[in-house]
Amino acid sequence: MQSLKTFSRWFIVALTLSATAGCSSWVYRINIPQGNFLEQTDVDKLRINMTREQVLYVLGKPVAEDAFDKNTWHYLYSFNHGRDNEQRKSLTINFENEKLVSLSGDYEQPAEFNTPLEQ
């Protein structure tokens, strides 16, 4: 009889803990930045006709290269995913004939973008 009471108590404790474990608002989640953190000053260094290597030097390796279009790179950044103060930024780089031709996304196009670097 005593072992049945002990088992019942442990069963209730285990059931309660497993039920509350699913409540994500009660569980602390650490903020982990995901992707490429870029600042506008980094993007301002980009110029038309830069090579892929030059873009890699300035921005680093992209989070994703388009599997169907090798001429498109995606730089993505996410912080505080799923929270009220979530931050997301993206930058898409397009190449043509191995040279940078355009960029789009959440960053302003550099004022000097259409001025190629001196060769």
List keywords for this structure.
five-stranded antiparallel beta sheet; 3 helices; 119 residues; alpha+beta; Beta-lactamase Inhibitory Protein, Chain:B, domain 1
Could you characterize what this model shows?
GO terms for molecular function: protein-macromolecule adaptor activity. It is a lipid-anchor. Part of the outer membrane protein assembly complex, which is involved in assembly and insertion of beta-barrel proteins into the outer membrane. One of its GO terms (cellular component) is Bam protein complex. It comes from Pseudoalteromonas arctica. This protein is α+β, with helices and mostly antiparallel strands. The protein has a domain at 34-105: Beta-lactamase Inhibitory Protein, Chain:B, domain 1. The chain is 27% helix and 24% strand. It contains three helices and five strands. Strands 1, 2, 3, 4 and 5 form a five-stranded antiparallel sheet that branches. Strand 4 and strand 5 (99-105) form a beta hairpin. The radius of gyration is 25 Å and the shape is rod-shaped. The N and C termini lie far apart (89 Å). The model has no long low-confidence stretch (mean pLDDT 80).
